[in-house]
Amino acid sequence: MDAKDILGLQKTSFPSAQEKKPRAPKEPQRKPDGVSREVYALTGGVGMAPLMPTIEASHLKRRPAVEKEKVAWQWLPFTSSARTDNLQLYHWVRVVNNVPPTGDYDFAKYNTKVDVLKYTDEEYEKYLTEPTWSREETDQLFELCQRFDLRFIVIADRFPTARSVEDLKSRYYSVTRALLIARARSFDEVAGNPLVKETFNAAHETERKRALSALFSQTKQQERKDAEVLAEAKRIMESRAANKNVEEAGAPTSLPNAAVPADGVSPLSNNLPSSAATHPAAAANTSIPDTLRMLKVYLRTHALDQMVQAVTASAGIRMIKRVDQTLQDLGVNLKPKVPTKAVCAEHLELRNEILTLLNIQKQLQNKEAEVLANRESSFTEAPTTPKRSNRDIDRPFVPDMAGFGGERAVKRDHKRKTTGRFDAPPSPTQGKRPRKMKASD
Q1: Claim: this prediction has a pTM higher than 0.85
Q2: What's the pLDDT score for residue 283?
Q3: Average pLDDT, the chain
Q4: CA geometry: angle at 282 spanning 267 and 251, to 5°?
Q5: In terms of Cα–Cα distance, which of 175, 122, 121 is closest to 145?
Q6: pLDDT tens profile 250-289
Q7: What kind of fold does domain 121-200 have according to CATH?
Q8: Helix/strand/coil for 91
Q9: Which of 92, 186, 196, 220 has the most CB atoms at less than 10 Å from its CB?
Q10: Ordered DSSP codes for 156-200
Q11: Could you say which DSSP state residue 429 is in?
């Protein structure tokens, strides 16, 4: 029973608004031939874009309609402001719509002139006199400088007397500098002028040209030799810089709680070279490669391990283990906890001193063994005399029982003793005369 039964309404079915009308099935599109399935899916089923433009290419290159220009080339006269004689020449000119171009000659802007100063007789006598230069030569020099725009190679070729290019430059720049300073109200007014700020050095210019000529005339062999010399000089400078950095670190030269002499030299460095004795840190770092010594930042990485291996490269594995054991006995970490440059230098120096101490102890043991062997081999004895070791053995005391019927006991004891490791000297026969003792016995 529902609400319609209670109200007495007829049960009819009304279409609900939520019901969706069925859509017409889409016709499946067939994949065109020659196109892969992946490409067809990426294009969304619409196929590939057209390979050819849909508009004509002529429409893209078409320019807007403008009035056509009438261009012609005409033989016309022209003048140049760079010339002072008003010479009229002719050349071909591009004329557009029968309108000839106006204005100055195009290449007249490249006609630049140098402002060469002129001096009076009073200024020359007061500021510009030079014992090696006469007034006539100075006038000729400034005239040629004005004419050839300071092209001193050409000026030296045109100059009437034999003067070098450096002499001409020196005279011109010295005169110009003196004129600028003399005509200025104060020196600060012309202090920024290049001719006043930088004086011409003829000796330096001559040396520069000589060096340049020598450089250009070098052979390949000389160039290789110079390159080797420069590389060696660079290596020496890097080595000196590294040694200077080590010296600036200022590492102490003794172990903790160790006695240090008054002169500051370790007692273990008596047999070492003088350079190593005075500065053990430098001696410890001589075997470290330059690439490791030039490090500016020290970290607990392979760099410290490589430094330790370089310092202990001449030692064996057992010696390295003994060094590590000594560090542990002293309460020192095998790797610094704060590996700064100074701490790493101290650590390497401590390892080097421990290694030196162990080597000295080993040499001392070898020397003591040699002394003991020489002492034992120095006792040269006679052939019939028993060895020293045999004579030093404590033998039991056996009383002489021959007069008391103890001959059998003596023989028994002698028989027992002959079976031992060391043989006793035979007793002299009673029927023979005893041997006379020698002085060596």
Answers
A1: no
A2: 44
A3: 74
A4: 75
A5: 175
A6: 644 443 333 333 333 333 333 443 443 344 444 444 555 5
A7: Arc Repressor Mutant, subunit A (1.10.10)
A8: strand
A9: 196
A10: HHH-SS---HHHHHHHHHHHHHHHHHHHSSSGGGSTT-HHHHS--
A11: P
**Nearest-CA neighbor of 268 among 327, 352, 343, 329?**
352
Among residues 254, 281, 249, which one has the least CA distance to residue 266? 254
User: For 332, how many CA atoms within 13 A lie in the half-sphere containing its CB?
Assistant: 20
Least confident of 79-93, 133-147, 332-346, 407-421: 407-421
Q: How far is CA 21 from CA 13, 26, 28, in A?
A: 16, 15, 21
In this predicted model, which residue has the larger pLDDT, 59 or 440? 59
C-alpha–C-alpha distance, residues 370 and 364, integer Å? 10
Question: Does residue 141 carry a pLDDT above 90?
Answer: yes
Domain regions of the chain by residue span? 71-110, 121-200, 298-367
- Strands of 79-119 (E only): list them: 89-96
Task: Judge whether 198 and 186 are in contact, CB under 8 Å.
Answer: no
CA 299 to chain centre: 19
Q: What angle do CA 30, 32, 36 make, to 5 degrees?
A: 110
